[in-house]
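Query structure, 418 tokens:
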């Protein structure tokens, strides 16, 4: 795949080889990661990268759009069918810009947004003070119930009644439970707000019908196409037909420039692939593996935030194990298990330290790991949490992790032979 790069820039080709080796030899459990099928990589680097194009099929600003139009129309048709949506815009470059295009479609500076707290599972782009969005709009946040650690719908409703937001957002980056979209949609209607769901983390599970879809309930549904959707580094937004013109204007020229036709084609491939039994079976197994890991870790004395998971991820509270998220992440990384430190709800630690880690099961499930391997991963995690500084324990765990993952190739043999 890197034939010419190898000749023209061996240094860079070497870095790609290094990263391939790292991924092959690591147990990747970052919840936002997955492994893209080879056609997604091929299409992401195609000649469509040469074409500059703005606008929509039938209303372009540049000539030479005939073939590109076919790609966008095909991608739109496949996406609408897969997600059973009334309208889609697949011009977004990522999950973040998908959100920005919804904001550009319906909000004016100063308008109010009600979204989930970042430190309890939300996302930066939903109004965190660290993100530029917070400078344009006015924000309030709902959180989780301290007992159940699941969304406090009464708190959400009270805040919605009090603040009368223009937009209510559900969905986030570390929320392991199903969301009652219907209930939030009713609240939004009561207060006259638009309802947007950011399904970036769960789009693959939704496409496969493994968890309920937000699309029937929300005005807008945004998403990245990486994570559980296992596709290109890109984005997409669905909406009700009545908002189609607003969304298209808010996307281009409202918030984005020319099309990324390469990733658009890659997404089109994935909209077809996600309808296959193969993809559905992987997504079903992702949830089975996540539940198994939660059960196993609980058996080893870890506390799982909210008591378990309904999707592809779990958040572990490490306080009973006497180790911080930061330290656990580093120790796991040293043996070849990749996770990320994560705040738990009401975390006493700062974001750079944290009391928890977030773990996702998508990438390892794609490689073929099942419950018996998940049991072994939980055992390794437990050993490391108990002795994160013990060199012998780390060495033994590294050997076990390597042996485990070496049975499950990242890509079929020969994929990267030039
Ligand atoms: C809920 C949510 N929305 C949006 C994004 C941003 O997606 P991207 O990284 O594709 O811009 C993320 C990424 O972590 C996310 O978790």
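Result returned for the query:
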């Amino acid at each position: 795949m890197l034939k010419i790069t190898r000749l023209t820039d061996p240094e860079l080709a070497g870095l790609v080889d290094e990263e391939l080796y790292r991924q092959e030899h690591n147990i990747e459990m970052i919840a936002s990661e997955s492994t893209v099928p080879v056609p997604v990589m091929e299409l992401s680097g195609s000649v469509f990268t040469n074409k500059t194009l703005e606008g929509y099929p039938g209303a372009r600003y540049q000539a030479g759009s005939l073939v590109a139009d076919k790609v966008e129309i095909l991608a739109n048709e496949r996406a609408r069918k897969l997600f059973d949506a009334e309208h889609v815009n697949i011009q977004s470059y990522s999950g973040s810009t998908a959100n920005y295009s919804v904001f550009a479609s319906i909000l004016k500076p100063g308008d109010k947004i009600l979204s989930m707290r970042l430190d309890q599972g939300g996302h930066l782009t939903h109004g965190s003070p660290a993100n530029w969005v917070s400078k344009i709009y006015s924000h309030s946040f709902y959180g989780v119930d301290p007992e159940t650690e699941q969304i406090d719908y009464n708190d959400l409703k009270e805040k919605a009644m009090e603040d009368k937001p223009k937009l209510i957002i559900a969905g986030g980056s570390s929320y392991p439970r199903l969301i009652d979209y219907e209930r939030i949609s009713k609240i939004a209607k009561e207060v006259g707000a638009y309802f947007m769901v950011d399904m970036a983390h769960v789009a693959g599970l939704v496409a496969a019908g493994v968890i309920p879809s937000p699309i029937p309930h929300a005005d807008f549904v945004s998403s990245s196409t990486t994570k559980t959707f296992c596709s290109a580094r890109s984005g997409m937004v669905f909406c009700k037909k009545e908002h189609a013109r607003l969304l298209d204007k808010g996307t281009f020229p409202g918030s984005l420039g020319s099309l990324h036709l390469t990733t658009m084609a890659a997404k089109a491939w994935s909209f077809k692939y996600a309808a296959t039994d193969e993809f559905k079976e992987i997504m079903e197994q992702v949830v089975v593996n996540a539940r198994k890991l939660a059960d196993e870790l609980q058996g080893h004395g870890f506390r799982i935030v909210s008591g378990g998971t309904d999707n592809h991820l779990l958040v572990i509270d490490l306080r009973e194990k006497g180790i911080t998220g930061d330290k656990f992440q580093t120790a796991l990384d040293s043996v070849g298990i990749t996770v990320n430190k994560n705040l738990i709800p009401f975390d006493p630690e700062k974001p750079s330290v944290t009391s928890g880690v977030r773990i996702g099961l998508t990438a390892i499930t794609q490689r073929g790991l099942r419950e018996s391997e998940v049991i072994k991963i939980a055992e390794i995690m437990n050993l490391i949490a108990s002795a994160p500084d013990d060199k012998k324990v780390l060495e033994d765990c590294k050997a076990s992790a390597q042996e485990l993952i070496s049975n499950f190739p990242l890509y079929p043999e020969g994929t990267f032979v030039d």
